[in-house]
């Protein structure tokens, strides 16, 4: 696999994880308000 493709795949993977984490953070924040 070419390095550029591998790098962009890894970046997309970590972006997915970051988005998941952000959603969890927002949900727990909203739960804390109620």
Structure characterization notes:
With 34 residues, this protein is mainly alpha-helical. The chain has one helix at residues 3-33. The longest helix is centred in the middle third of the chain and has 31 residues, at 3-33. The model has no long low-confidence stretch (mean pLDDT 79).
Low-confidence parts? none
Number of helices: 1
Taken in chain order, the helices and strands follow as H
- Supply Rg: 15 Å
Number of strand elements: 0
Structural class by secondary-structure content: mainly alpha
Through-space gap between termini: 49 Å
The pLDDT mean sits at: 79
Identify the overall geometry: rod-shaped
β-strand amount: under 5%
Percent of residues in helices: over 70%
Major sheet, described briefly? none
């Amino acid at each position: 696999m070419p390095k550029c493709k591998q790098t962009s795949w890894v970046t997309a993977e970590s972006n997915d994880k970051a988005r998941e984490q952000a959603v969890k953070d927002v949900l727990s924040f909203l739960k804390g308000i109620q």
